[in-house]
């Protein structure tokens, strides 16, 4: 399905680029990191008015998971990756990363779509090359997990999305 979605397809956009995104950001995360995602949802949606696509809440029941992922990424202005050991172990998270990269290349003319949050520290040798590529090419935020740092973190994340 992925190949048929992106193989040989180049979006044609003029000056009126797609601005009718349903979401400001799709959040790619492992289920074991749901507590952090709930905190992020509270901060960004509740306090800052950002529209997030969260798979446990926004995916359409009965649709294929891969189809839900592709649709969610396509209808979101950004894709936020919540990097943790759990993320790396999840095949679906890695799939979401690859779909977001394809969206960036094929549909958005290499526009910066991916944004990485380093939620938990991971030893460099355990980070897959596909994620190291994102780390080296894109800006990212590290979650500080302290009161002052958290305030700055949420403000910087909000600025990166809007």
From TrEMBL:
Localisation per UniProt entry: Membrane
One of the GO BP terms on file: innate immune response
Membrane topology classification: Single-pass type I membrane protein
Gene3D superfamilies referenced in this protein's UniProt entry, alphabetically: Toll/interleukin-1 receptor homology (TIR) domain (3.40.50.10140)
GO function term, MF aspect, one: signaling receptor activity
Keywords recorded for this protein, A-Z: Glycoprotein, Immunity, Innate immunity, Leucine-rich repeat, Membrane, Receptor, Repeat, Signal, Transmembrane, Transmembrane helix
Pfam families the UniProt entry points to: TIR (PF01582)
Residue ranges constituting the TIR domain according to the UniProt record: 21-161
GO CC annotations on file: plasma membrane
Signal peptide positions on this chain: none
Protein family per UniProt: Belongs to the Toll-like receptor family.
Protein name per UniProt: TIR domain-containing protein
Lineage, highest ranks first: Eukaryota, Metazoa, Spiralia, Lophotrochozoa, Mollusca
